């Protein structure tokens, strides 16, 4: 797994400068763009002693692929915890001074969904997002752009064996709450105030059998309309913020 990533888009790159400027290795900017937002970004780069490389839009597009780059592309190191495994997760959990609040994504494959989940996780104060290495999307430029900075602020830990990691979390006293449309309990009937991990399934397929069996509770989101389920990133936001509501209420 590479320890660097390419990010693009003014908001994603500007946020990276605010959160982890020391991780930015290279910056390319559209030589024809001179607006205020670009000038502000160039000033940030200058303040950190980063040389800006001028490029035309075709060069930037090659680096960004099919994504919309807005005239800015950067290559960054991944923060240490972003490329970690079980060991990195152990460090995160051992350093906590409050009940663990984790998000587990069981095989999310769409980078837009992962980016949106990271953004919700950042807003909700999640301590780490956990995902399997295989058959799941990793951190990409598209993920970073959709996440609007959260790809650099929320530890994203990919593990080799998700079921084993889930059992290790249980041994630490962390309750696993899985979202499943067939569950009998509603999300709003479960206590989410203690050390928990919200476990979300993949697009369409939902939770895998082993993952479902590891969960201490299965919950569903009440659906009043004709659609059977929500997009995984939307459902993740709903679950995380119900936990936030309960946890804030107990403080």
Question: Could you characterize what this model shows?
Answer:
- With 251 residues, the protein is of the alpha/beta class.
- The protein has two domains: 74 residues, 60s Ribosomal Protein L30, Chain: A (2-Layer Sandwich); 170 residues, SPOUT methyltransferase, trefoil knot domain (Alpha/beta knot, 3-Layer(aba) Sandwich), CATH 3.40.1280.
- 38% of the residues lie in helices and 22% in strands.
- The strands form two sheets. The protein has a seven-stranded parallel β-sheet, with helices on both faces. Strands 1-4-2-3 form a four-stranded mixed β-sheet.
- Helix 1 runs parallel beside helix 2 and helix 5 packs parallel to helix 6.
- The longest helix is centred in the C-terminal third of the chain and has 19 residues.
- The mean pLDDT is 87.
The string of secondary-structure elements, in order, is EHEHEHEHEHEHEHEEEHEH
Corresponding CATH superfamily of the largest domain: SPOUT methyltransferase, trefoil knot domain
The total strand number stands at 11
Spans of at least 5 consecutive residues whose pLDDT stays below 50 are: none
Strand order of the largest sheet: 7-6-5-10-8-11-9
Helix content: 25-40%
From the 3D coordinates, which CATH architecture of the largest domain would you assign? 3-Layer(aba) Sandwich
Strand content: 15-25%
- Gap between N and C termini, in Å? 40 Å
Give the number of helices. Answer: 9
How much is the radius of gyration in Å?
Answer: 19 Å
CATH topology of the largest domain: Alpha/beta knot
Q: What is the highest CATH level, the class of the largest domain? A: Alpha Beta
Number of domains: 2
Calculate the mean pLDDT score and round it. Answer: 87
Structural class: alpha/beta
Main beta sheet, described?
7 strands, parallel
User: How does the overall form come out from the CA principal axes?
Assistant: elongated
